[in-house]
């Protein structure tokens, strides 16, 4: 006689808890960003769904429409979290020039990522909108100020080991270095854009022989 099947499911075979809505949104945005950088606003939700390994319907359960998803991508690319983690990981026991070189390269990569994504959206016909992105703080003056302060504070720690050798307070040097690095990253002509090595060398050693 065939044994009766156990009506109680095996705990080991129970379905794993579903992904939270917030985590699902984050996953979709991270899958979408490389596509947005490549295609701009022309990217389709079907492409994004394939990149995320999910069905297209899942995209629309997480976001109202593609515009909301693109807004979320803009918010994500403007977040300074990643560059702040990189600055915090710079070893303080290496020479100041090496510390600043690592910092400048991290900040330039951050700026390049922002420029690539926003540039692709602009080139594909999507203009900056003052609706949801501004309401969520992406690109708002208060948000930019907070991002600048957080980055400056992280840079300040890189100057502090030099102590009394510094001509200016660490926080002032951090603000100057931050402005110089960002200005260099926005150079208008490739043949005059200073390299990271040049910026760090002139900043640390001055312009005179």
Automatic annotation (TrEMBL):
Q: Where is the composition biased (Basic and acidic residues)?
A: 1-13
Region described as Disordered: 1-23, 123-147
**Where does the record locate the signal sequence feature?**
none
Keyword flag Transcription regulation: yes
Its keywords, alphabetically, are: DNA-binding, Transcription, Transcription regulation
Q: Does the keyword Cell wall biogenesis/degradation apply?
A: no
Give the highest taxon in the source lineage. Bacteria
**HTH tetR-type domain: from which residue to which, for each copy?**
22-81
According to the entry, DNA is bound by residues in 44-63
- What is the name attached to this protein's record? TetR/AcrR family transcriptional regulator
């Amino acid at each position: 006689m065939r044994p009766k099947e156990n009506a109680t499911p095996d705990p080991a075979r129970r379905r794993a808890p579903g992904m939270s809505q917030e985590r699902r949104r984050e996953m979709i945005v991270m899958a979408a960003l490389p596509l947005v950088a490549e295609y701009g606003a022309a990217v389709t939700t079907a492409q994004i769904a394939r990149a995320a390994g999910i069905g297209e319907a899942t995209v629309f359960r997480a976001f109202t429409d593609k515009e909301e998803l693109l807004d979320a991508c803009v918010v994500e690319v403007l977040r300074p979290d990643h560059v702040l983690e990189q600055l915090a990981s710079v070893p303080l026991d290496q020479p100041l020039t090496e510390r600043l070189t690592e910092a400048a390269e991290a900040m330039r990569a951050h700026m390049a990522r922002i420029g690539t994504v926003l540039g692709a959206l602009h080139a594909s016909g999507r203009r900056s909108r003052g609706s949801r992105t501004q309401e969520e703080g992406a690109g708002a003056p208060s948000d930019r100020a907070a991002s600048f302060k957080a980055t400056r504070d992280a840079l300040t720690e890189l100057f502090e080991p030099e102590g009394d050798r510094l001509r200016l307070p660490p926080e002032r040097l951090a603000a100057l270095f931050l402005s110089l690095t960002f200005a260099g990253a926005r150079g208008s002509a490739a043949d005059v854009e200073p390299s990271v090595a040049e910026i760090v060398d002139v900043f640390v050693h001055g312009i005179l022989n």
